[in-house]
Amino acid sequence: MERWAICYVSTASPYIEEKDIDSVLSYTENWNIDHSITGILLSSEGNFFQVIEGERSIIKELFDNIAKDSRHRNLIKIFNKEIKNTEFNGYEATFLSKRTSNLSQDISYLDYIKCLDSASQNTVKNILKAFVD
Ligand SMILES: Cc1cc2nc3c(=O)[nH]c(=O)nc-3n(C[C@H](O)[C@H](O)[C@H](O)COP(=O)(O)O)c2cc1C
Which position has the higher pLDDT, 46 or 108? Predict the structure, then answer.
């Protein structure tokens, strides 16, 4: 089996509400677990960050479908590549923070991912590192 991984960020559509994001998160978690797709979907302050890992054709087809979804826009791919091993053990889709107009200044951005298990925190940190190094 050829394994593939895609990671991107996107902006939630201004027309969707928190309950709509909730249904995206729960649908995604259930579907991906049922289809042996690993990774993570995070929603924070009106943005999405997602990693999907699995069999190449399933991942490519799923991404094409996700990209057409009107509940988000401005998709920016971070990577789209073959992988030897998956980085994530299962699939988790969760809110890191709700959409707020006044982002609290005293919360460090890494505090937002403290709700994830430590393996997922490390993987997300490693992906983000590419942007600061
Ligand atoms: C940000 C975002 C991420 C999504 N991620 C997934 C996903 O990983 N797996 C999935 O099955 N659907 C995901 N969806 C939902 C799909 O876009 C789509 O609604 C779902 O696959 C059902 O497609 P269908 O209506 O063509 O059957 C996501 C939607 C959004 C807005």
Answer: 46
